[in-house]
Amino acid sequence: MSKHLHAPLVQTHGVEKVYAAASKIAALKGVDLIVERGEFTALAGPSGSGKSTLLNIIGTLDRPTKGTVSYDGKVISTLDVDELSDFRLHALGFVFQSYNLIPVLTAAENAEYPLVLQGVEPAKRRKLSHEALKLVGLEHYAERRPDMLSGGQQQRVAVARAIIHRPSLILADEPTANLDSKTGAQLLDLMEDLNKDHGITFLFSSHDQAVLERARRVVRLQDGELKADEVRAR
Amino acid sequence: MLRLAWRNVWRNRRRSLINVAAMGFGLAAIMFGQSMMRSLQYQLIEKATGSFTGHVRVERRDIDEPKFPDKFMTDPEPAAKLLAADPRVLAWGRRIHLTGLISSPNKSLGALICAVEPEKEKIITDMATYIKQGHYLEPGTKGIVMGHKIAGRLDVRLGEKVVLMAQAADGSMGAEAFRLVGIHETGSESFDGQMVWVPLAAMQELLVRPGQANELAAKLYDIEQADAVAADIDAKIGPGNVGAMSWKLIDKEIIGIQAFQDGMLTIILGIVFAIVALGILNTQLMSLFERVREFGVLMAMGARPRWIVRLLIMESALLGLVGTALGLSVGSALIAHFGRAGLFLPVGDAFKYFLPFPSVIFLRPSWWMHSFACGTVFLVTLLATLPPALRAGRLKPSEALRHV
Fold this sequence. Notes:
Order of helices and strands of chain B: HHEHEEHEEHEEHEHEHEHHHHEHEHH
Strand content of chain A: 25-35%
Structural class of chain A: alpha/beta
Order of helices and strands of chain A: EEEHEEHEHHHEHEHEE
Number of domains of chain A: 1
Helix content of chain A: 25-40%
Largest sheet of chain A: 6 strands, mixed
Oligomer: heterodimer
């Protein structure tokens, strides 16, 4: 995907999402948002405010009912299913609230899976998987399956999986919600380090104040509308 | 993908094992059934051709019942020379079949008289092996061999004389005394209760038909060549009132039995295939519902929908391969075991009325049919996966990720 000079990494324009099945309830009502490269941005808001819906639409997991999503200046919300898959495969990483590791694969195999989908050769995959696990402090847990790892460790593997293919944007939906506060704080430290040291852009959602305080920018949503956009000096 | 697919197959070990076992034992049952039917048919053909019919016959074309030709070939020698010259023919012999009257001092009965060339007949058929008292026919004698039942009805014993009466060529009734030299017990009512065997020369003399016969029967080295040999001989004989035919045109009832059994087998195979397909469909549907969120994760990572479809098909293919391998192993072992030990089937009594038939079937593999069964089980496994696989491919990532 060609990069447009000075174009923001992500730009949503008038994004609306109406769930037909749920009595035409609008989950998003014309959201305009710009995310620049290198940001460490949180989407805040109570349950039902539209955080996850917006993350899904930016992550191309869902399509907006109206409006557009652009990535590097190119509109991506109109791509077909295969093009969207390829886009996610190369440009995005995901961290989910409940880790969502594949239970039959080891930590190393889970971490390297985006590279499997990219068709990277096994030796290179193994090397990059080792590096990614080292980066999240789990190089000694490479051969363990998810059920042999704690929640925090599983989420670290999920982070390793999200960064292994060097995406420019990682989307994390409530990444600390299933972790205790100490483990959650450690995960945020890791995300922050990856953002600072490797320039990976993070856009994550949370309604936890302790988590939001770690973000350098907080976008607040309420009832599907963008209510506030706070940039913090840190 | 292969690694993920393989591990997914064994994710729910018990369910996969049940499926593999169902597939494997289903296939083994199919192979066993195929082998049993084919072996039964093989033995039936072997017995029918080996005890009476022969593999190829030369007869007159204008006869009503080719199994028991009632019209004579006045000069069978040109056809006899063709049979003698064909390298595919193991042995051939002239025969006369006719109905006549057989009389002992105590009783007279109607009988089916078979006049044969004794030395040749010992190779063409196995009737000599069924002799329980005395010995088989010898050339140049006026001996007679008959079944134990007809001997009982006539109340004759070895060494005693019976008289055969039949219509001679000139329309008169010919009669000749024959000495009972052998009594056979085949277990078949037709053979033991109705048939008598005499040397050809003696019968030609009785009928005043020197050099004549109403059939030439040949045994080939390979029965599979019967159609080809019959066609070749028939072509060489040329048009006229004499022709050659394979056993298939003579023992039509065996072909009928074969067709019936094949039809039954096809129905049974269809049922087993349907059971296998439903098992796989059920497994894959359950697997799909259990892993909807996981498919969402794979899609979020960038897996294309058809990649998900391929993953599920590969899982089924692996399951199918394991099931097929199990079925092939168990089926082959069963066939090998019953090939050596024999399988008792109470079918002998059903066939015994018509021909000597044992109730023990020695199974033999029918690899072409088994390959077809293996391929079909494997294909059915793949086809049964298509609906759930295509459904998984149509999942929306966001909805799949919300699936609980």
